[in-house]
What we know:
- There is one protein chain.
- The chain has about 325 residues and is of the alpha/beta class.
- The longest helix is centred in the middle third of the chain and has 22 residues, at about 175-195.
- Helix 4 (about 140-150) runs parallel beside helix 5 (about 175-195), helix 5 runs parallel beside helix 6 (about 210-220) and helix 6 crosses helix 7 (about 250-265).
- It has helices at about 5-20, 60, 105-115, 140-150, 175-195, 210-220, 250-265, 280-290, 300-305, 305-314, and strands at about 35, 40, 45, 70-75, 85-90, 95-100, 120-125, 155-160, 200-205, 225-230, 245, 270-275, 295.
- An 8-stranded parallel beta barrel has the order 3-4-7-8-9-10-12-13, surrounded by 6 helices.
- The protein has one domain (about 5-314): Aldolase class I (TIM Barrel, Alpha-Beta Barrel), CATH 3.20.20.
Amino acid sequence: MFPPETAHYLSLNALKILSFLHFKEARPIVSDNIEILGLDFQNRLGLAAGMDKNADYINSLSYLGFGFLELGTLTPRAQSGNIKPRLFRLRDERSLINNMGFNNKGIDHAVLKIKNSMSKAVIGLSIGKNQETPLEKALEDYLFCLEKAYPVCDYVAVNISSPNTKDLRKLESEEYFSSLITSLKKQQQVYSKELGYKPIVLKLSPDVQDRDLEIICKEILDKDIDGIICSNTTIAHNYNYQGGLSGEQLFEISNRCLTSFRSFLGSSFPIIASGGVMSRHHFEKKLELGADLVQVYTGMIYKGPALVKDILNS
């Protein structure tokens, strides 16, 4: 009935009201209590970045029963993102195409919201670079956001794979990748002395070619990156919209990527799987393919909070 971005805003605010009024049917009761990435998760299901870009709905989303929430992606400075329309529904395919472009209120806003939240879920903060920041200075943006995010969240997700910020995916190439993660790991060690160790995970593209994927995996292992998120949206689609495809159409693509990363990184390396999870069956398939944790986003758009309940209570 409404344009996608309007519906998104209305739905999140409706959830805020319902959770405030203690809407009991919305809260799953299952708890697995597992340790991954050195963190304790009540269950393996999390919310992917993009649903709550500014950390404005932490308490409301936690109320649904997620074991973890990933907020953002946040950039050093607030930005409006790409020109509208930039979010498109593919109803028959239960998928979306988004070309949002990291629209957000800036990382300082999110940091304040996290400090004031009452959530007991594990909190991840996804960080990126501003649109106008050239690739040669992208590291400065990531280091700035890491410094802000580290004290307030449980893990930091480094988004270098969104297809909607010009040239961002070049950060996955040999030219930039090694120096970027080396610098982030160095600062992680510095901050950990005062604030304790907090994992850094990389959010990667499902469109990485096999040769590049092997190089990325070697760097991840060599530099002791703590985990990865597999995967972001894909541009390998034929729809007449610009942007990354998510939802059911991404499921098999992201699964192939997940299988490859698990093969290269080994059986014990922490992997968070994301991409096309629309049901309990999809959730279980990600775990079967080697995921340690699973995220949803587009499934929430089409099925609402019932998806969380179905996955956790089935």
